[in-house]
Write a structure and sequence with these properties.
CATH topology: Nucleoside Triphosphate Pyrophosphohydrolase
CATH architecture: Alpha-Beta Complex
Shape: globular
Strand order of the largest sheet: 6-3-10-7-12
Oligomer: single chain
Largest sheet: 5 strands, mixed
Number of strands: 12
CATH class: Alpha Beta
Length: about 160
């Protein structure tokens, strides 16, 4: 299913749903960030997805990262909460979802890089190379917050 992200766009369609979701800033021992090239919007992103009934939010992080990338992780802490009502995602089935995402730090503990139906490419990206990728502004903000070692409190917004 394809989607269009609207970010602070006055012409965006009105949201008709909110689905709790997660993203993960996963950094390996070399300092590279785990990123995926998404199939639904053709943008680079950090792995993540929707929270399912019956799982803890940490379980959602572990499941989504492994499903999208092949990498097994352990959740460490929260980068931030991202609930901007002016960021909506319009899907081709008519759903227009308001952003509600909790971003976590997670540490890789196993697995091997692989793609999925949601990722056409998966790779470890040097922080110096992130600016060369086409990344949505809301994901870029999470990456910035997640890689900022001086931050002591989660972002809430």
């Amino acid at each position: 299913m394809s989607r269009v992200d609207y970010y602070n766009n006055p012409d965006a369609p009105r949201a008709n749903s909110v689905v709790p979701s997660v993203t993960a800033v996963v950094v390996n021992d070399s300092g590279a960030l785990l990123m995926i090239h998404r199939t639904d919007n053709d943008l680079w992103a950090i792995p993540g997805g929707g929270h399912d009934v019956g799982e803890s939010i940490a379980d959602t992080v572990v499941r989504e990262v492994e499903e999208e990338t092949g990498i097994e992780v352990v959740v460490q802490d929260i980068v931030g909460l991202y609930t901007n009502p002016h960021h909506v995602m319009a899907y081709d089935d008519g759903e227009v979802r308001q952003q509600f995402s909790i971003c976590f730090h997670a540490r890789p503990v196993g697995g091997e890089l692989r793609t999925s139906s949601e990722s056409s490419e998966v790779r470890w990206v040097s922080p110096a190379d992130i600016d060369t990728l086409n990344v949505h502004p809301s994901i870029r903000l999470r990456i910035q917050h997640g890689l900022d070692a001086s931050r002591t409190e989660p972002h809430i917004g």
